[in-house]
Task: structure prediction
Amino acid sequence: MTATLISSIMVSRRRWLLTASSDEGLPTYRWWLRGELIRSSASATLEVSAADDDVPFIQVRDDDVPPSQADHPGRIRLYWHSDSRASRFRVEQFIGAAWVVIQRLSDDGRREFNWHSGWMEDAETRRYRVVAEDAGGNDSTVVPDVAVTIVRPPDVPVWSPIRNGDETLTIGATNA
Result:
């Protein structure tokens, strides 16, 4: 029972068509995004979209067992709902001993908003919060801050054999 992702075709700037195969006779493909089951069907294809400069990490299986390791991307994404009193939102990061404005987003009538951080190093921790501002620039709602530590699966090692002068072999490994 092995499901394999065999192709990833970019359909547009933000959309990909993924195709899987399986050694099962009539498999049910289970598609996982960031550790969450997003689709279960007999179809071997999945069209997925992503925000700018984001690459979705998709895992596919043909059994009932969830992936052993959920995706841990190198950035975080904040989601929040609109506030009827807000005219814009401030994304802030706690740096040193103060909250620093990272970006302001205008409330354009959407019900939901999302924002993603820049690339974070493994084991790096950052604190973020989103603050809604009214038309006068006053804070109307402060969303509780969230602290996030990025922990990704280890890089696949690159093996390098080294032939010693005495005809022995030393094998070294470095991260890719």
